[in-house]
Design goal:
Arc Repressor Mutant, subunit A, globular, 4 helices, two-stranded antiparallel ribbon
Length: about 110
């Protein structure tokens, strides 16, 4: 089966996991525009209201990808419609990218 969005999912997930690995163990807020996953901001503040932009769908797709990683317990954090907050790799996420710190590995070998 060919998943229509598989290539874009892979691009988003690779970028997010790379950013989280570089930040580990510090949680980070994910700004999809700053990460290069969207062409512009996800919303603009106009007259006290946040309005969608042309880039909103890109932010929403990236949020869906992050929500999947959260549901599968590769990350922890809070996912919003166009961004994510306090995102951190879990032990399962570290294992996924083959980046478990030695200090955690030693605890598994008695």
């Amino acid at each position: 089966m060919d998943l229509k969005n598989a290539a874009e999912f892979d691009r988003v997930v690779t970028c997010v996991l790379t950013a989280l690995a570089e930040s580990f163990p510090r949680p980070m807020d994910l700004n999809f525009h700053a990460l290069g996953l969207a062409d512009g901001p996800g919303s603009n503040l106009v007259n006290g209201r946040y309005l969608d932009t042309e880039s909103t769908p890109q932010h929403q797709f990236a949020s869906h990808c992050v929500r999947f990683l959260l549901a599968e317990e590769y990350i922890s954090g809070t996912v919003h419609p166009v961004w994510a907050a306090g995102v951190l790799l879990t032990a399962k996420g570290l294992e996924l990218i083959n980046a478990i710190p030695d200090s955690l590995l030693r605890g598994t070998h008695s």
